[in-house]
Input
Amino acid sequence: MPELNIGGNKIYYRENKGHSIPVIFIHGAGGNGSLWGYVLKNLKGIHAIAPDLPWHGESSGNPFGEISSYADFVHQFITEKGIEKCVLAGHSMGGAITLELAVKEKPYLKGIVLISTGAKLRVSPLVFESLSNLESHIDEFTSFLLKDENLKSLMKDALLKSGAGVLKADFTACNRFDLMEKISEIKIPALILCGDNDFMTPLKYSEYMHEKIKNSRLVPVSGAGHMLMLEAPELVAEEITFFIRDLNA
Output
């Protein structure tokens, strides 16, 4: 995988060249860029970049306890890559990072894709308690997220690679995040995707974002849960492709 040096840390990323404006995919808590793999395979002609956040996946560094710090990192990543304009696509915590940059009106940001996320993310105390012994709870946690055994294995590997320390920092960042009063300031186009069986970031979260972000489109996905990019990668890729084409029209 290619890498960038950002703040003395090696940051690894996946990149599929294409003819479109770059789409930068930001993973969720405890994940890494590999979880976007099925979506990237289904994107045709789209320039896609999926980094591992610091201390996630193959990247070095330290996790952050604030969404704003992750947003600052993504800004640095975009700057170091020399990207002049792009779209951000974020899942769950990655969606919070995306919203953080969108409300700051970064000039390079031409659109956002919000997947299984919300303007406010609260984490159950039971989740934090489970981190005291991650390995004993990992099967329960992945079974809560996914039903397919192959997908559960992929998710399990990502979470165990990050470890309990990273997950605690990520969930702490999510728990502190709240932009409910600010997202109405977002003027750029937004595509909002959410499964109607998502128990972590329920459909009502996406409906709220759709209501507040005037230039937005909401696509509920029937029967899907929280890990939309793993459960319905073809649909996610198709909707993002349409979104990019509309931006370029």
The longest strand covers residues 9-16. The beta strands are 3-6, 9-16, 23-26, 48-51, 86-91, 109-115, 190-195, 216-221. The mean pLDDT is 95. The chain has nine helices and eight strands.
